[in-house]
Amino acid sequence: MEVKKEWLDWLASSDTGTSSKTMFSAITGTPISERPDVPGDIADIGRCVRMLRKCPDLRDKLHMVIDKHKEWMPFIDCWKELEKLYDECRIFEALLPAEQNKMKKRKHFTSPNEQAWNLMEQLNVASRYLRGMRIQNDHHSWKNQPPTSY
Question: Is residue 149 assigned to a domain?
Fold first, then answer.
């Protein structure tokens, strides 16, 4: 695959992280020094989103991430929703505190940050399962082996 200037510009920037580099590597075949990983929070999603916006030709190849890293499937399957939530979080955070507080007082209001957190939790559980991990004893204990009983 031909290396493009915008790819090199992005790689040389400070707006990279392990998950965005994992995504980039899976699509372009460029090796990375970090251990591949999935996004852990909306900040990680943000770095991936900004990478795709700087390198738009990579967007059509998102399926390649799943081909190399099956644990990315939950994230890629709802990528449009993740991008939308990321944008909503940025808009919400840009509001003045008084405006944020006004919104928070609305009945049944859930901030975009909370929505993103909840979705990321679900996606990370699905991702761990795809990696072969299973919950042991409580929701915070994962092992790389199937449980002895269900």
Answer: no
